[in-house]
Amino acid sequence: MLTIASDIEVLARFGRALADPIRCRLLLALREAPAHPSDLADALGISRTRLSNHLACLRDCGLVIAIPVGRRTRYELADERLGHALDHLRNAVVAVEADKTCPDAETRGCC
Questions:
Q1: Could you tell me the CATH number of the domain that includes residue 19?
Q2: 1-12 residue pLDDT tens
Q3: Pairing of strands 64-69, 72-77
Q4: Prediction pTM value
Q5: Which residues contact 82 (CB under 8 A, 6 or more apart)?
């Protein structure tokens, strides 16, 4: 029974991370290569403060890690399998129905 609860918690953490478009973009960017926050903020076109909040969320979910490099911090996926999981998940969803979008959570009560 513990395994099921643990599996559910892990999937819920991944779901929370993917629930925000900026966090999705961050995960996809880090899938390509580790990066420093200033570079990520510039690449995503968001403020460093906003980026910091999203990186904190991803760290709390256990999906990214912060590595000190001198006076700077570099971020990367916590495990390379996360990059593969993102690819597989995206491919599976597109393969099922590429033309679907998730209904608005407020009007449909999902997502």
A1: 1.10.10.10
A2: 456 668 888 888
A3: antiparallel
A4: 0.80
A5: 27, 31, 63
